Amino acid sequence: MKMILTILMILILGILFYQDLKERKISLWILVIGIIIGGIIHYLHQYLMVFLWNIFINTAFIMLLFGVLWSYAKLKMKKKIFDVFGLGDLLFFILLAVSLPMLSFLIVFIFSLLFSLITFILLKNTFTDKTVPLAGLQSLFFGLVLMGNTAFSSINLYAL
Predict the structure, then answer these.
(1) CA gap 130, 144 in Å, rounded
(2) How many CB atoms lie within 10 A of CB 102?
(3) Is 92 within a domain?
(4) In angstroms, what CA-CA distances link 54 with 10, 43, 150?
(5) Residue range 95-110: average pLDDT?
(6) pTM for the whole thing?
(7) Is residue 47 one of the residues assigned to a domain?
(8) Do 25 and 88 touch, CB atoms closer than 8 A?
(9) Per residue in 37-80, pLDDT tens?
(10) What pLDDT was estimated at residue 160?
(11) pLDDT one-digit tens code per residue, 11-45
């Protein structure tokens, strides 16, 4: 069951990557399915209270980060938040928050942001848009992490 759900999650992440790079937007229903499947996979690896606590802490972190982004966009850039940050990106952050335990979430989240930045800088001439396809690049990174977690028994995202 866990293996089937993980394969399905990797496929969803691949779709998100493709959509964000190709269309510069991602489907809400794909994100919702990803959030549900990621949550189920996480739940199958944790006790209920640990699962709920992880989601609470991860979501609080996302809310804090979003508050800082909102403040920066409003006060410094004088723009609305969704003019500088996509709703799909926020929903992908929630997908990560629901899908992983706290420590794994923080590690994957931070390194996926670094991966996205470095990838965008290295390939910026190939992108037609000036903005970073953040959810797409983060989904590529998370998909690679899930494949590594599945392929190598020495890595266990859900034990952290």
Answers:
(1) 25
(2) 17
(3) yes
(4) 21, 10, 21
(5) 96
(6) 0.91
(7) yes
(8) yes
(9) 999 999 999 999 999 999 999 999 999 999 999 999 999 988 88
(10) 65
(11) 999 999 999 988 888 999 999 999 999 999 999 99
- Give a yes or no: residue 26 inside a domain: yes
What is the domain extent for residue 26? 2-151
> 10 Å Cβ neighbour count for 123?
10
Number of domains in the chain: 1
Q: Count of CB atoms within 10 A of residue 6's CB?
A: 17
Cβ atoms of 141 and 107 closer than 8 Å:
no
Collect contacts of 102-110 with beta carbons under 8 A, ≥24 apart: 102/53, 102/54, 102/57, 102/58, 102/160, 103/160, 104/157, 104/158, 104/160, 105/54, 105/58, 105/61, 106/61, 107/160, 108/141, 108/142, 108/145, 108/157
Flag whether 160 is in a domain.
no
Residue 123 token pair: 């390939």
pLDDT band (50, 70, 90) for residue 152: confident
With residue 9 as reference, give the H or E element that holds it.
Answer: helix 2-23
In the 8-state DSSP scheme, what is residue 121?
A: H
Spatial separation of the C-alpha atoms in residues 82 and 89, rounded to whole Å: 10
